[in-house]
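Try this one yourself first.
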C-alpha cells in the first residue's frame, strides 16, 4: 500500500519535472488536474458513492502533498497564463501580484495533507480531514487565485 503511494508520487514527480523544464504552465496544470482527480475520488467516498478505502485516502493526501511541494517552482514571472474561459485550471494573474501569499497557501496545503494522512483511520476521520482541506486550503486558494469559468 505505502509502496504504491510512493510509486505514484515518484512517477508524478518524474513526469512533472520533465514537463516543468519545458513548460511550467503545463506542469502546474498537470499537478492541479491530479489534485482534482484525487478530490473526486475523495468526494465519492464522502458521499457514499464509493467505499472507504484507506489506501486510496493515502494516495489522495500524497498527491496533494506532492503538488504543494512542486507547484511553488511552477509559477515563474514569465509564465502568466493566457486565460481561457473553458480551462478549469487557469491561474489568475493575481498569483504573481501576491506570490508569497500564494506560496504560503501551497505550503499550508502540504502540511495539512501530511497531517491528515497521518491521522485518518476511518471514514469519519477522513470526512473531517477532507472537508477541512477542501474548505480551508483548496477552496480558499481557488476563490482568490483560480480564474472562474464564464
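Now uncover the answer:
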Amino acid at each position: 500500500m505505502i509502496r504504491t503511494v510512493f510509486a505514484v508520487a515518484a512517477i508524478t514527480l518524474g513526469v512533472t519535472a520533465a514537463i516543468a523544464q519545458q513548460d511550467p504552465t503545463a506542469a502546474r496544470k498537470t499537478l492541479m488536474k491530479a489534485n482534482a482527480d484525487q478530490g473526486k475520488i475523495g468526494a465519492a467516498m464522502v458521499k457514499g458513492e464509493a467505499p472507504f478505502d484507506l489506501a486510496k485516502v493515502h494516495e489522495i493526501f500524497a498527491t496533494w502533498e506532492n503538488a504543494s511541494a512542486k507547484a511553488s517552482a511552477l509559477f515563474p514571472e514569465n509564465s502568466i497564463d493566457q486565460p481561457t474561459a473553458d480551462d478549469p485550471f487557469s491561474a489568475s494573474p493575481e498569483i504573481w501580484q501576491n506570490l508569497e501569499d500564494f506560496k504560503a497557501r501551497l505550503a499550508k496545503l502540504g502540511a495539512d495533507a501530511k497531517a491528515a494522512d497521518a491521522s485518518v483511520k476511518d471514514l469519519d476521520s477522513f470526512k473531517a480531514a477532507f472537508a477541512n482541506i477542501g474548505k480551508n486550503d483548496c477552496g480558499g486558494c481557488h476563490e482568490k487565485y483560480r480564474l472562474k469559468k464564464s
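Discussion: The chain has one domain: 2-145. DSSP finds six helices and no strands in the chain.
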